[in-house]
Design brief:
Strand content: 5-15%
Number of helices: 18
Structural class: alpha/beta
Distance between the termini: 71 Å
Helix content: 40-55%
Radius of gyration: 24 Å
Shape: globular
Length: about 525
């Protein structure tokens, strides 16, 4: 454990008084923060239903109930956290519960990893637990980037272990690094990048602060990078891959994301809570209450540069730069010291951060709890679909580029993919991108599959069906009225746009299910 450069905290509180209050509040907030996952069979996260559908396919692969439209094709991909663990857990429980358990484990790793990292750096826990709870339902996590969340929690644990061993015997440090690099590679590629970037910046800081020679630093950095380079070599030799093609910066969103990061469902709440945190941190820093130690300054500057430089879409993965914000929020508290002048100040700070956590949590519960009925309705509608059918997903609402018009409607966008389990159906929106998922559509339907993408706008479907399609119609919907058997139209119920072609089978507040009358 690092001790010689450990920051000195000067919180003037009697043992068993203010500290006990803070620990009690933290424990209560943590218990409440895990409730949404425990109370909802299918969490209302954007990508979660799609992930759950894939878990069903993986768990039923090779059994009589396996989906006839999909096959499992394992390769050396660095994005397989839940794909490796959930099917094994599903041997002991239902797939639905196994997937929720994985999400809950990811949340435990986020909170526990942040606490462990702060303990390794400071010798005590102080700020990290509250920071982790404040970001537990931030935009990347509430949108369902579950493998990234799991990997980031694992990365926090790996960084903590490395700091504990930083001045210890090098073989032990090397073995620990190999273990975490391998685990992070399997879990999620960008969590491995955050792990490597943090420790690389930490080692660079040690050059000046510890008067370590450049040669020793080069050796330590080489030892850090060697396992990852070896894994990338194996990936190349085995025809593995990292995602797919597609790189975009979307620079106009980089100044905006910090004000939208705190909440994935309500932009007003996200901006308000984000501003409260920013103003409080700036005030504490200007008054000298909050200090970032030298190693933390190096890491903060490095993360800021990465945030600006890294594309928003990299290797076909979206919102890459956005993921740097929660990573910084979870790592930097371990390198901060907070010294408040009185008990009143400490209680005010505790109330402020608790308020931010509870406000965001209230929004999550307000969205997730009603979705229990919505998801139950769409699961019930699958009984009206013939098994083995092809199911298209359309939308009457706004499903354009972010920021989406109604974030609370977005969790329904991938709910129809659950038909791959309940009706053994083919749904083109199921995540099947090479380099990310070990599931792919079989040859008979592969031309219809879209590895990533939301529902097809209703206007486009109508234009195609009435022989007025635009020139750039995607191939998978070019002849949708012949290729598919059913259509889910997401959004508020509306009049049947094509009564001669579509027959209403089921309606709900968030979708209408149609049977497509086949025509040549």
């Amino acid at each position: 454990m690092v001790t010689s450069d450990r920051p000195i905290l000067t919180i003037r509180a009697r043992p068993g008084s203010d500290r006990s209050v803070a620990i009690t509040v933290l424990a209560v907030l943590a218990a409440v923060s895990f409730l949404p996952v425990l109370l909802t069979p299918i969490p209302a996260m954007v990508d979660y239903p799609n992930h759950l559908a894939r878990m069903y396919i993986l768990s039923q692969n090779g059994t009589p109930s396996a989906n006839p439209h999909y096959e499992v094709a394992w390769a050396f991909y660095p994005n397989l956290g839940m794909d490796l663990l959930v099917p094994q857990l599903a041997r002991l429980m239902s797939v639905e519960n196994a997937t929720r358990l994985f999400l809950l484990l990811s949340q435990f790793l986020i909170v526990g990893g942040a606490l462990l990292l702060e303990r390794a750096r400071k010798g005590r826990v102080h700020l990290a637990g509250f920071a982790a709870l404040a970001f537990l339902y931030c935009l990347p996590f509430s949108w369902g980037f579950v493998n990234f969340e799991f990997g980031l929690g694992l990365a926090l644990c790996g960084i903590a272990v490395y700091l504990m061993l930083a001045d210890g015997p090098w073989p032990l440090r090397f073995v620990a690094n190999v273990v975490f690099v391998a685990a992070l590679y399997a879990a999620h590629f960008f969590s491995l990048g955050i792990y490597g970037a943090t420790l690389g910046l930490y080692e660079l800081w040690r050059i000046g602060h510890r008067r370590i020679s450049y040669r020793d630093t080069a050796v330590r950095l080489g030892a850090l990078a060697m396992p990852a380079l070896a894994l990338f070599g194996v990936m190349h030799m085995t025809a593995g891959s990292i995602g797919s093609k597609g790189t975009n910066w979307f620079l106009e969103f980089k100044p905006i994301w910090p004000l939208r990061i705190m909440n994935g469902y309500n932009l007003t709440v996200a901006a308000t809570t984000g501003l409260v945190l920013m103003i409080a941190l700036l005030f504490a820093a200007r008054r000298g209450f909050l200090k970032l130690e030298a190693a933390g300054i190096w890491i903060a500057i490095g993360f800021a540069l990465l945030y600006v430089a890294i594309p928003s879409k990299l290797f076909g993965t979206s919102f890459v730069d956005l993921r740097m914000i929660p990573a910084a929020a979870l790592i930097l508290p371990a390198f901060c010291s907070l010294s408040l002048p009185s008990r009143a100040w400490r209680m005010a700070a505790l109330a402020a951060i608790s308020g931010v956590i509870l406000v965001n949590l209230a929004v999550v519960l307000a969205v997730w709890l009603p979705y229990r009925a919505d998801f139950a309705a769409i699961v019930a509608s699958f009984d009206k679909i013939d098994r083995g059918s092809r199911v298209l997903v359309g939308s009457t609402g706004d499903n354009g580029d972010p920021p989406f018009a109604d974030l609370t409607s977005y969790p329904m966008y991938y709910a129809p993919t659950l038909a791959v389990h309940y009706a053994n159906a083919f749904v083109p929106n199921l995540f099947t991108e090479a380099g990310k998922q070990p599931v792919r559509a079989r040859e008979t339907v592969r031309r219809l599959a879209i590895p990533y993408g939301g529902p097809v706008p209703a206007d486009l479907l109508a234009a195609i069906a009435t022989s007025q399609p635009p020139a750039d119609v995607p191939p998978f919907v070019r002849t949708w009225y012949r290729d598919y058997d059913y259509l889910y139209m997401l959004g508020p119920p509306a009049a049947n746009p094509l009564p001669d072609l579509l027959e209403v089978l089921d309606t709900s507040e968030r979708f209408v299910l149609y049977r497509i009358r086949r025509r040549s």
